[in-house]
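Figure S4 source data
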Amino acid sequence: MNREVRKAQGPKPGVESLEGRAVLSTVSAAVIAPPVSATADAPVATPVESQQAIPTALVRGASYLRIEGSARGTAQTLAHNPDVGNTVVLLGSGRVQGLGQVLITGKLHGTGNIAAGTIGGELTISDAKGNLTLKLVGPTARGFSAPKSGPYRFSVEHGTGSFAHEVADGTVALDLTAKTFHLAFHGSPNRY
């Protein structure tokens, strides 16, 4: 009896390289040695009042970029299903300290068919050296609220080119009209 055995074909396990990725949510504990007993050769170590955790947001190869500047351009509201909320598309240009003239593109998303939600979106800052995409988190609003003017928090979602290993956060003041926008970036100082 000649029986053929068939092996199941499926995804094969593999390993992905994590090199070049910035880990933004780790904390390293700074371990402090306990006090040492006094001897004739060594004095008593000063007691430590508390042990502190040192944030390690800046992983090897990453650097902090303080984003300061302003931009203006056109805003266009996209018509679509109101249950998912309005989307406003932004296209403009401006100046960012340390980068010079930049192109700004992005989208803001309103709330849809929910009791309350957060208005948010993303902005991309582009220059000849690469792109930096920022995640925007805006105010809490009732359901069916359109994106609006006001302060938004930003943080780096990802970057390309020379911005591939940048981290940044801060606020952006947005002035939004029916057809235009103006924004001012206020980057947080490097806390690391």
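Figure S5 source data
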Amino acid sequence: MRFFVLAVLWLLAAGLVPLRSAVSSERLEMRKAVYVAEIVRVIDGDTIEVQILLLPGLTQRVHLRLVGIDMPELRAGCEEQRHAAQAAKQALEALLNGHRFVQVQQIRPDKYGGRLDGIMVLSDGRSVAEELRGRFEKRNCGEKEEKKKKD
């Protein structure tokens, strides 16, 4: 059952299966919908596991990647980026502290197909991605040293 719900959610997000409104026959696009989601856990600096409320009594647990930011990876090849990734994760955890539920908007499948991309908005109206943007820089390992050599 869980696989079926996730598959339908993915197809809806991709726009491959149209939902019909009870009032009109126009297509309701998932990325325009706003969902309530319960925060389950922070995975890394730009991915959160959430339980999305699809319909009353119907929820789905998904990994949601925040649109608009690209944080360093926890499994980066160099220690500097791994430390930055851990700091980004801690910053996201601190930002979400005290917020059990959030709004999720503009959901779509991510480029790899294993997660969903979306915009997360806190109960006070702040965008999570906007709060974190510019605080952590993702770069390739060795990029800093190469730049110094050129100067």
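The helical segments are 2-14, 79-96, 128-132, 143-150. The first strand starts at residue 19 and ends at 20.
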